[in-house]
Amino acid sequence: MSEAIAEAPWRHIEVEPLAPSLGAVVRGVDLAAPTTAQLEEIKAAWAQHLVLTFPEQTLDREAHKAFGRAFGTLHVHPLNHARGGDAEILVVKTDADSKYTAGDAWHTDVTCDAVPPLGSALYITEVPPSGGGDTLFANMYLAWETLSESLQAFLSDKFAVHDGALPYVGAYGVSPPEGSNYPRNRHPIAPRHPVTGKRLLYVNSGFTTHIEGLKREESRAILDLLFRHIERNPRFQCRVRWQPGTLTLWDNRCTQHHALWDYYPERRYGERVSILGDAAPSL
Ligand code: SIN
Questions:
Q1: What is the Cα–Cα distance from 227 to 21, expressed in whole angstroms?
Q2: What is this structure's pTM?
Q3: Gap between the Cα atoms of 73 and 87, Å rounded
Q4: Ligand 1 midpoint to CA 92 (Å)
Q5: Class of domain 14-275
Q6: Fewest CB within 10 A of the end CB: N or C in the chain?
Q7: 219 and 210 in contact (C-beta within 8 Å)?
């Protein structure tokens, strides 16, 4: 645990680290009615731990959205055109009829957007009765820092393309609204976090199609190497075990996550809000 984490003077919430590299459990706050002082401490704890999980919450949609709005404007997911309902809520529902589950691979959310969401808050209300359905998170600062200096030097000025059609059409089979395409944008491979200024690894197996300026097979080989680096390093990771009423808030700029679908044919249900970013990822 870093000194900063050990010394944090929490006076209005309780914060217990989940793993050395990222993640903390936060108690002692009702997210339906947090005080200003609690929100300030939640923001500070979020900056330190990147992923915060709040057990035993009771939130209706409006309270969930109000909590998300404490961090910025809510994002409208590109898939919500096909789903109807509340445009600011992404329903995460998996049951015996599901052909896929949202987020069942390492990724961060909606990096196809020019300005991807800065964070997401997922509120789970139903968990599989026999267990499972955990979510793994990984720290992308550490993923960058643990690459060799030579590879960092090679990647540090490169850009990669993130295409919404890859997951939304390729994996989920949902066409974009008639006459339009899903967002497709280029982002640096090692941008700096807009708040901390620290570099991080920003390739996304869910959305990244290729690295610009390389031959196709070179780009594929390097992306696969980077994706494996993220997937295979428990040292960067923590694991969130959900209960009905757990809300988890993650920094979408410097973490990735993988929702484990190990509970078929059982059911899991939750709703997510995401918060609009304030700047495109930049060097
Ligand atoms: C997601 O936002 O990718 C889904 C995460 C989860 O269901 O745990």
A1: 18
A2: 0.93
A3: 13
A4: 7
A5: alpha beta
A6: N
A7: yes
